[in-house]
Amino acid sequence: MEKEFYLLELILKKHKISYQINKQNQSIEIGKYSGNNFTIILYFILALISLSILVYFQFGSLFLYLIPISSFLFGMNKLIGSRKANEYSKTISQNGITLFNKEGAITLDKSKIKAIESNVFFDDPSGSEGDLNLITNNDKTYLLFNLTNKNVKYLKDDLENLKRIISQILNL
């Protein structure tokens, strides 16, 4: 069990998702996105610099002005999507998964879980985005994680590793 928690820890650290391990209960509470605001500031500064260069050299094409603006909006959209998906905490233990959301806490034991599925739904040269979903026996889907990575192979590997580790913890 310690090995699974250690591997899970590594992936969560990589994607800047906070967590807390409870060794007595052999559970892990996975919290909110813990990224800092540096990324937001960086997107804004890069877009501002690009626009300044275009204005200074008086490039006339409107299309050129849309590139830095759209890249800023694209980056912000990915960042906000990741924060929203990882906004609520989850507790994973051998007994099951407890998901906390707007409605409150939902506890799903092993008998109620049909499958855990990974899905990469956005693959672009600037980055990839994927989800890890939990499917219940009545085919209800719960989002466990939303991850982003510049390399789609690493993203797929992380999602598959998360899927494998959580399945091992739950003994699915």
* Separation of the first and last Cα atoms: 14 Å
Average pLDDT taken over every residue: 76
| Coarse morphology | elongated
Order of neighbouring strands in the sheet with most strands: 1-2-3-4-5
Q: Which stretches are low in confidence, meaning pLDDT under 50 for 5 or more residues running?
A: none
Query: What is the percent of helical residues?
Result: 40-55%
Radius of gyration: 19 Å
Order of helices and strands: HEEHHEEEEEEH
Fold and architecture overview:
By secondary structure, the protein is an alpha+beta fold. It contains four helices and eight strands; from the N terminus they run αββααββββββα. Strands 1-2-3-4-5 form a five-stranded antiparallel β-sheet. It has a three-stranded antiparallel β-sheet with strand order 6-7-8. The longest helix has 24 residues, at 62-85. The radius of gyration is 19 Å and the shape is elongated. The model has no long low-confidence stretch (mean pLDDT 76).
Provide the descriptors you would attach to this structure in a database record.
172 residues; alpha+beta; five-stranded antiparallel sheet; 8 strands; 44% helix
Architecture blueprint of SSEs:
Elements lengths: L1 H13 L2 E6 L4 E7 L4 H19 L5 H24 L4 E4 L2 E6 L2 E6 L3 E12 L2 E10 L4 E9 L2 H19 L2
Short description:
Helix content is 44%, strand content 35%. It has 172 residues and is of the alpha+beta class.
